[in-house]
Amino acid sequence: QPVSRGTLAAIDGLYRELGGQVLGIIPHDLTQDVGGELVEGLMNIVLGIRQQYREVKDWEQADALRRQLTELGVVVEDQPEGATWRVERGGG
């Protein structure tokens, strides 16, 4: 069962507030501070889930994941060898 966008936003807000503003343990730019390994791993998981939706032709869920990533500034491009992604800063 997919998690709603509102639930994800609430979790993200709480995570950022507690970890970043209160405790000061969350870096502002994860790709710089973690060397991209965490982000890369998370994106591999998300794209793997999206691929599973595509394999069973659940286009609605696959497209919903893509839209949510786009809203975060992550561009997903489907290639014959698999999906690739990149972050677009400042224009989404």
TrEMBL record:
GO biological process, alphabetically ordered: tRNA aminoacylation for protein translation
Organism: marine sediment metagenome
Signal peptide (residue range): none
Residues covered by the Cysteinyl-tRNA ligase anticodon binding domain: 46-86
One GO molecular-function entry: ATP binding
UniProt name for this protein: Cysteinyl-tRNA ligase anticodon binding domain-containing protein
